[in-house]
Amino acid sequence: MPVLRNADSPASKATDSIAARYGVAVIASWAAETATYPFDLTKTRLQIQSEVAAAKHGYKMENHGMIKTAVGIAKQEGILKLWSGLMPMFQRHAIYSGSRLILYEHFRNAFKDANGKVSLGAASIGGLAAGSLAQLIASPTDLVKVQMQAEGRRVLQGKPPRFANCRQAYAMLYAESGIMGFWRGAVPNVQRAALVNMGDLVAYDYSKQFLIREFGMADTAGLHAAAAFAAGFVAAVVGTPADVLKTRLMNQPVGSDGRGTLYRGMIDCLQQSVKNEGILSLYKGFLPLWMRLGPWALINWIAFENIMLAIGGHTF
Predict the structure, then answer these.
(1) Residue among 140, 123, 143, 285 nearest 199 (CA)
(2) CA gap 182, 99 in Å, rounded
(3) Which three-class secondary structure string do you get for 270-304?
């Protein structure tokens, strides 16, 4: 039987403080990231493997599926390469996951009507804003993650390795483009985060409240799992096109002027991708992204909700 706490007690205030909820959100995201990260790396490789721009430089065009790509990475580069770039991803979530949750809850409280409810439209705006702001702050860590994920493929193409660890990757990017270079690809990255959070935060929140209201479900792991499944699918559907553009912009080589050499910007990347590979190129890596976001949302939300319950705090 759960322990009831006085909402005004010091213990309750401490476990429901911004710092506590921020910390729990980060821990939950780390657990989800560790379990599902190989899907993210496979998705990145799929998104860059057949870039037509790369063919102009003599690279071999490829058309591998998710399983073949993952198996190929494990065989050719080693099984641990499936977690290459995990450290900057942890750094990203230390900023991103805590920030997005706190920002969304702030927006949600601000948008509540007289009955304490939030409309789907208002919640969507809150999710878009929370995801955008959190990702803008954390964008440099995502750039390093993408570079580390793509490095193994460059080495297999006969190119010399550019860095051996996360710290060297940061140093290389700073030497190439300066401090502002860390925000290369930030526009599609922010757009992707906005869309994914509209799918993840809003779909989870709205699905959870709908199931409680319409089906009388209790605030238990079963409810969290059902809402998380819906959140992962919606996030993958709305977020994949922006994710493809973000990955290609971040992965492209950089010239002496610090600018990308393959694409002039997001619109140019979009036009080249659709023109040369078709509209479905914007959904390259959808399956691994969905297979990642689904379990990621499941692990993240169940971990967050249950940790909050365990310490006597409020659920999402």
Answers:
(1) 123
(2) 19
(3) HHHHHHHHCHHHHHCCHHHHHHHHHHHHHHHHHHH
Better pLDDT: 14 or 216: 216
- The per-residue pLDDT for 310 is 92
| Separation between Cα atoms, residue 226 and residue 243, nearest integer Å | 25
Helices (H), the chain: 10-15, 18-48, 52-55, 66-77, 86-111, 120-156, 166-177, 186-197, 203-215, 221-251, 266-277, 286-310
Cα separation of 237 and 124, whole Å? 15
CA-CA distances (angstroms) from residue 151 to 58, 77, 139? 17, 11, 19
Average pLDDT over residues 189-205: 88
The answer for residues whose C-beta is within 8 angstroms of residue 75's C-beta and 6 or more apart is none
- Closest C-alpha among 101, 91, 90 to residue 127: 101
Instruction: Give CA–CA dist 44/48, Å, rounded.
Output: 6
Q: Mean pLDDT throughout 223-228?
A: 93
CA-CA-CA-CA torsion sign (170, 101, 36, 246): negative
pLDDT at 11: 52
Give the C-alpha separation, 236 to 291, whole Å: 9
**Which residue type, as a one-letter code, is found at position 212?**
I
> Higher-confidence residue: 226 or 291?
226
SS3 track for 237-249: HHHHHHHHHHHHH
C-alpha distance from residue 29 to each of 93, 138, 141, 166 (Å)? 7, 14, 15, 20
